From TrEMBL:
Residues 45-495 form the Aldehyde dehydrogenase domain. This is aldehyde dehydrogenase (NAD(+)). One of its GO terms (molecular function) is aldehyde dehydrogenase (NAD+) activity. Belongs to the aldehyde dehydrogenase family. The active site is at residue 270. It comes from the Eukaryota. Its EC number is 1.2.1.3. The keyword Phosphoprotein does not apply.
Amino acid sequence: MSFPSSLLTYVFFFDLVNKDFCEVDRIFCFQTFYNVIINELTSTAETRHGINPSTEEALPPVPLSTQEDVDKAVAAAQAAYPAWRDLTYDERAKYILRYADAIEANLAGIQDILMKEAGKPVQNATQELGFALMHLRQTAGLRLPEDVVEDSEERTATVRYVPIGVGVGIVPWNYPALLGLGKLDAAVLTGNTYIWKPSPYAPYTALKLGELAAKIFPPGVVQVLSGDESLGPLFTAHPSIGKISFTGSSATGKKVMAACAKTLKRVTLELGGNDASIVCDDVDVKQVVQKIGPFSFLHAGQICMEIKRLYVHEKIYDEFLAAMVEVVKTFKVGGAGDAEAFLGPVQNSMQYEKVQDMFSEISKQNWKVALGGDVCSTGKEKGYFFPPTIIDNPPENSRIVVEEPFGPIMPVLKWKDEEDVIRRANNTDMGLGASVWSSDVERAKKIATRLEAGSVWVNSHFELSPSVPFGGHKWSGIGMDWGIVGMKGWCNTQSMWVRKKF
């Protein structure tokens, strides 16, 4: 079902409580964007606008939130919290499922916004929203039961997980729908109220998802505020917010943690990565490169858990590199809405400059280029595009190995000794993800268990599930999102003692 951009549409959603269809009484327009505070669409005195990274054209204006807006939203979230907390898990889950149905009913319009603001080709935007819907529906089925530690004739001791109160999700620009909804569902399911703060570079999808949430959830349970870089500190400093869940760079994550320390807020930090992938000498090269190639360049390298350093055994290195180049050559570069494109643009001008600086190191450091390298070779006159680029065995201390480029450029490196490659893979401040590839699964598992990362894969990479937590070690974060572990991050642990005889 598609919605012409010139038309307004009605939203229909399935009411899981009454088992019939309900018509939302307000027209849902995909061309105007507002904050969502107390289930009302509100504007601000000043506005700003994002940029379409495929065309460099201005997108529509969005609110520029102030301290007054933050205070109003937090007060509403506080007021809504007691009644929302006191609902059962099953009752809160019904709201989440209704919300998923409402999103699905408006999927075409939401996907169009996502492609324009994030520069996502069709297949990438479709995958993100499809996974986000699955995330909402599967998370709605999870529960945090009480743990009975002791149950004797005299007493019981129980461990409970109780909601924190008002929570804020600070969401990045690379996966604005999935990462925002992946915080929302766990937060509200466990009984918290949730304020969504999208990235200044990608606020549009979040604002429309917030507008839909206002049709489903009670006032104050889910709210969305957009703004510039000054908005995040207003949330981290607010004394009535109990939890910040942040996804973004390690540098900003440290600032978030320091700011939250002043009011002892709970924090979850899912930060940058520099994922190593180790390829053993016994793999089927042609088969493995078909998987590793996409895992290295999906969304133009703008995924924290993507392969960033590829270590290939020297016995198969030349064969592997040649095969890898042939696979990556087929990845078409194209902008938002391109049904055939695999690589879209880098999402914003700030990141474009950072990636361009990394590309400039090719000539400065005399790196050997196996594919790409020429920034101007994409044939695009407008947009923040780069060609997929592979660097052939650069020195281990090179910037391309040490730093996370967050763009479509990656090193392929040789290894010979197993102990040495494990040391090299772990020799980073980051610890988000890592993978091992081998026909000998037991051998691969032994290597994988020694890798210092929050997610470790054998014969795969970037494999995710709504039921499995993800997060990082070292500078890649604190705590985890998703699954039961992620839900516990939205709760305080409480010990309850009941004396039966006294």
